[in-house]
Amino acid sequence: MKAAILILALLMTPFALSDTAEAEFCAVTVVHDEFCVVTPEAASYSVPAGSEFELQITSAEGYSVSSILVNGEERLSLLDADGYFTAVIDADTRIEIYHVRESSPFVLIIAAVALLAFAVVSAVSAKRSRKPD
């Protein structure tokens, strides 16, 4: 009798999960230029829909992150001061990371001095070329 009840119980148990939604997964593709290291590394990942995806971005010396595109939309504001970028993934996503070379204060000083020297030489030259009335 117990075996019959067990068989009946098994027959009434839904084996298929058709009534419940299966977890949906999204593809996340990470690409970047040559001026950084990203953890996890640039590749494609499968993550559950609605989950957070975090990257740590370590820029090469002399470079800083200039743009983070998520499916073509700028999301640089999601990068924190420690280099962590977090986004909620709701669909297949492409994350692109780009850098810009930082300006050296030394280069700016040289440019300012050169501009000042040019202005002084131009002023002296203009003064000499004036003819007295």
Task: Note poorly predicted spans.
Answer: 1-20
Strand content: 35-45%
Q: Write down the overall mean pLDDT.
A: 82
Largest beta-sheet details: 5 strands, mixed
Q: What is the molecular shape? A: rod-shaped
* Assembly status: single chain
* Strand order, sheet with most strands: 3-1-8-5-6
Radius of gyration: 31 Å
- Give the end-to-end Cα distance, rounded to a whole number of Å: 129 Å
Structural class: alpha+beta
Q: Approximately how much helix is present in the residues?
A: 25-40%
Beta strands, count:
8
- Summarize the helix and strand pattern as letters: HEEEEEEEEH
Annotation field: number of helices: 2
Structural commentary:
This protein is α+β, with helices and mostly antiparallel strands. 27% of the residues lie in helices and 38% in strands. The longest helix is centred in the last third of the chain and has 25 residues, at 105-129. The chain starts with a helix and ends with a helix.
